[in-house]
Automatic annotation (TrEMBL):
CDD domains: EAL, GGDEF, PAS. This is EAL domain-containing protein. Residues 680-934 form the EAL domain. It comes from Crenobacter cavernae. The chain crosses the membrane at residues 23-44, 159-178. GO terms for biological process: signal transduction. Residues 332-384, 454-506 form the PAC domain.
Amino acid sequence: MALPYAAADKKRSALHRLTLRQMFLIAVVLGLLIPALLITLVGFSAQRDKLTQGLETDQRRLLDIVSLGMQEPLWNLSRQAGSPLLASVMDDARVIAIRVTDTQSNTVFLSALRSERRIGSVAFVQKPVLYRGEEIGQVSIEFDTEHLAIELNSQLKNLILLVLAQLALSGLLIFWLLQSRFFRPMQTLTEQATQLAGLKLDEPFAWSRGDELGRLGNHLEWTRAELKRLIDELRAKTLALESDMARRREVEEALRRSEGKYRELFWSNLDGIVISSLDGQVLDANPAFLNLMCYSLDQLKLQNFWTLVASDSEPVERFNLDNKVMRFGYCDDFEAAYINRLGNPVPVSVKTVAMRDAGGRISAVWRMVRDISERREAEERMQLASKVFENTVEGIMITDPDLRIRSVNRAFSKITGYSEDEVLGKKPSVLSSGRHEQPFYESMWQLLSDAGAWQGEVWNRRKDGEVYPEWLAINAVRGAAGEITHYVAVFSDLSERKAADERIQFLAHFDVLTNLPNRAHMQDRAELAIQNAVRDHHKLALLLLDLDRFKTINESLGHSAGDALLQAATERIKRIFPQTGMLARQGGDEFIMLLPVLAEPAEAAAVAEAVRESFAEAFDAHGHRLTITPSIGISVFPDDGRDFETLVRNADAAMYLAKSSGRNSYKFYTADLNARAREILAIESQLRFALERDEFVLHYQPLVDMLTGRVVGAEALIRWQHPNLGLIGPAGFIQVAEERGFIVQIGNWVIREACRQLAEWLARGLPKMTVSVNLSALQFRQQDLTAVIEDALTEYGLSGDCLDVEVTETVVMEDAEATLAAIKRIKAMGLSLSIDDFGTGYSSLSYLKRFKADKLKIDRSFVRDIPGDSDDAAITRAIINMAKYLNMQVVAEGVETREQWDFLAGEGCDLVQGYLVAKPMPAAEFATRYGETPGVELAELGL
């Protein structure tokens, strides 16, 4: 029975022999390995189920395709019509054979068989072919499932490799953390504890950690410091006690030796001596003390000593008497103030000695008093001069007649970098920069010798080698006989002032953010280039570049990201731009490029195209991967202008043409652009005040359910009721509003106005419906968008399901993560989301699935030519089917004909809007038309 206990003891002994490092590593390996194995098994099972489900889905889809596609050929017994479908299905490598059987004749109508043989297992599926409710045939398909096993093996290998890599990385990371945060500090603690036990207390224990080990280390340091302090104090007190005892013996011995000479010293001493009893009664005083205090001896004896002491000095006198004289028999020099017979204070230095009787008891006190009035005044003058010398901001250097440095102040060391010890005894030439020739110094010393002073600007060198300018003034100091005893040099550093002057010059001609020339500098260079072009009879070109949608990035990601993007764009352009040209920043996101010599306009076009292509690669700005494009306008001298201002104005007009033509392009100036530029300028200037003047209105276009004809909603479309130009559609001002930064305010007004109008309709008894509002890219990126929507709904007492937010797919795809966060906030309020103009941008089906939109709106460009255009019909049909699978409603825009209605209804479209139903109309007309009967009679539309 003892064996099991012995084995257990042996096992515990083995565990106790393990170090902390080994125990931690065993725990880490077990903690990582077991979860990794479980993750591998679960992941492989999930991948196997996913691949199996995918194969089954593909089998059903192909079977449905063949079954539907064989209806017409089988009914018409047209093998030629059905053969292409079988050939296209056989393109799938997993299909082994297809057989279509005619159930009427019980014969094989069509079949296809892959020539090569398959090794793996085979899956067999079949489905009847129905035509008008009648089974007319049977479709059978054989699938090869060997690829499923191959894919599973590949997935298992990848999963195992990934888990092993994660295990290795995690193990290294955990070992590094344990080594740096535990093992090494524990070793350090052990070594420090050993030093503490051996009383090796000179070196401090440095700990900067804030965890438990750091606090333990700090406690060890506190213990070391306290032990060292106690030992040092004990040692110092022992030495002080020995010293005091020795001095006491010396004083007593000196008193005994000097007793015979007392009277001689007392009467002849130049310092005042006064003897008083312990209670302050004056017993005697020598002539020096009597003269100092303006008393006779008889007058003084009538005074108590403490009446002679100034009130602020009495505490010091009493303290020294009680704590030094009465204890040790004497007191070293200390300063005090006495009051003479005239009532004037007299500063004195006092040394006190106890007088003892025959029994050794202290019976009186002997004070030696020296007048220090002159010394005080001299010290005050010296202190003032020293403070001025040390605290002046100018550097001061004093040399002897041989030009050897005797003293420098703190400002000298601060300016030159040399400490006082490094320059004492050396000559000022240690600071020489080498910029001045010998005649300069000869002229300086000649003037100094003649006039005794010199001042001017000098370049000297600091200790670190930096050359700097200084303003130097040297004066010769002469003695009583007129000889030169010293030279005093006072100097101030001019580096900051010169740097400020250079900075001012830089700011006057260059841009701070990009270090490019600014517009003023560019204008000077351009005017010089124009003069050269006139003289040499050649052309030059001016290119104006503007970054497309920069305001969106700047206002959504912040100005720091915008600045980083501008700097990156500058470097990108500089790499491409010819060295003979000049690049400048005009301001904001606009750059000016000057080509001073131009053989033909095509050269300018080539430069513009090269710059445009350089923007194809995305930019990295503060952790964001950003894609931005340029719009470039080109004007040519002398065809498009003969001065700088005209060339810039015409290039600006050409640049706006490039923007209005789709951006990311360049355009040359043409004469008719001036009219368009003036029109844009007029729109911009009046658009600033359109909101204040309440010139915007909303028109509403009904949204109709195709099955019932019921109006279920309306899209709010903005119009500008211009006082002079009349009603302007969004195409006339929205782009200008986006470019000039007005779109957010306009968009917020649309939200509030749409909510107000819907609340008014509901109050009048109109049936509940949804109003759709369009959001711009910039508005969608605003952090306060949800607050604006929530405030509008709350103000008018509406629930979130009354509002539908429409954004284009381009806006949705620009920044997926930010968009997803914004959509979550919107949908949390109960709003629905519609993807507008679907199919015209760069759609991503994976993103579309993540965004959980409620509606897809088919763009009118696809609806316009259906059903006649087969491509548009196929695209529309695909969008509808895709939306159904994603549980989204489909809205068709721009429906104008009965044929379009019939096609969309047949394909399963849910909602339509367009001129066939109604044009956009004012709110009052909408309420009148759909207030009582919220729908349309399909018969009225010819349906």
